[in-house]
Please model this.
Amino acid sequence: MKPMITYDDFEKLDVRMAKIVAAEKIEGADKLLKLTLDLGDKTQTVAAGIALHYQPEEVVGLTVPVLVNLAPRLMRGVMSCGMVLMPSSADGKPVPLLPMTDVPPGVQVK
Model:
């Protein structure tokens, strides 16, 4: 477990549901996929470390939670603006967290 944070720390996190509208492999990066996310009022690009487990076409169309206010970071030539949030299964495979009903892109996770 990580150290305890305050509610004020938690309030700084902006987690929203995003629809993956495009995905592609990143040249020279075996573990990363470049994902284009629909956040309702804008699109955002993230590099996600899921390429060892998923082909790009397997994730397009999924609606997943994303930390959208993470500082941008250059990853293998892709400016990643956020982080897709996925737990790992017992064997280490990332597992998408999917809503049980349709939710619009951009809705805040509380």
The two ends are 21 Å apart (CA to CA). The longest helix spans residues 7-11. The CA atoms of residues 53 and 93 lie 6 Å apart. Strands lie at 15-26, 29-38, 43-48, 63-67, 73-75, 78-80, 83-84.
